[in-house]
Amino acid sequence: MAEIEITAEPGVPQIIIAREFDASPELLFRAHTEPDLLGQWLGPEWLTTTVDYLEPRDGGRWRYTHTDARGGRHSFHGLYHGDPTPGRIVQTYEFDEQPDEVYLNTITLEPRGTRTLLRQNTVFQSVEDRDGYLKAGMEKGVRASMANLDALLARVQSQGRG
């Protein structure tokens, strides 16, 4: 499995996540912009993800909900900025339980031969917001999601849909 790099420099309200995948930028783009694919990999295995809506276009909205085994629900939503492409997706990100905290996510998908480097740059309004995100277990969720994404990409490619 490819190594995940998570960078959160002290005093900088930003987190950068980077990981290579054995898939094309187009397939990774589909995994981020097609509801049936997104719901299969986003979030750790102890949560079920439901994509409420996903409108990958400039000004389009997105929303998904994680549900735990006891029925607890945690929803996230945002807007796309610019038209998403297989090279770049820009979107805001908000957690319903923290309505005053808005993050800006920029996801780039860079071809590297037969592989693709996914880089997600998340900018927060403050270092405190960033630190709260880290303390809430972000790294564990990211690692689980990236492993799920890797498995999904392999499945889609083995079915000839990649």
Give a quick precis of the structure.
This protein is 28% helix and 37% strand. With 162 residues, it is of the alpha+beta class. It has a single domain, classed as Alpha-D-Glucose-1,6-Bisphosphate, Chain A, domain 4 (2-Layer Sandwich).
Q: Which tags fit this structure?
A:
Alpha-D-Glucose-1,6-Bisphosphate, Chain A, domain 4; 8 strands; 162 residues; 8-stranded antiparallel β-sheet; alpha+beta
Describe the secondary structure blueprint for this structure.
Elements: E1 5-7, E2 14-21, H1 25-33, H2 35-41, E3 48-54, E4 61-67, E5 73-79, E6 88-95, E7 102-112, E8 115-123, H3 127-135, H4 138-158
Antiparallel strand pairs: 1-2, 2-8, 3-4, 4-5, 5-6, 6-7, 7-8
Describe this structure in words.
The chain is of the alpha+beta class. The chain has one domain: 2-Layer Sandwich (Alpha-D-Glucose-1,6-Bisphosphate, Chain A, domain 4), CATH 3.30.530.20. It contains four helices and eight strands, in the order ββααββββββαα. A hairpin with a 5-residue loop joins strand 4 and strand 5. The longest helix has 21 residues. It is globular and about 45 Å long.
User: Mean pLDDT, rounded to whole units?
Assistant: 94
N-to-C SSE string, H for helix and E for strand: EEHHEEEEEEHH
Strand content: 35-45%
Q: What count of structural domains?
A: 1
Q: Describe the largest sheet.
A: 8 strands, antiparallel
Strand order of the largest sheet: 1-2-8-7-6-5-4-3
Give the uncertain stretches in residue-range form.
none
> What is the number of E strands?
8
Anisotropy-based shape: globular
* CATH C-level label: Alpha Beta
The CATH H-level superfamily is START domain
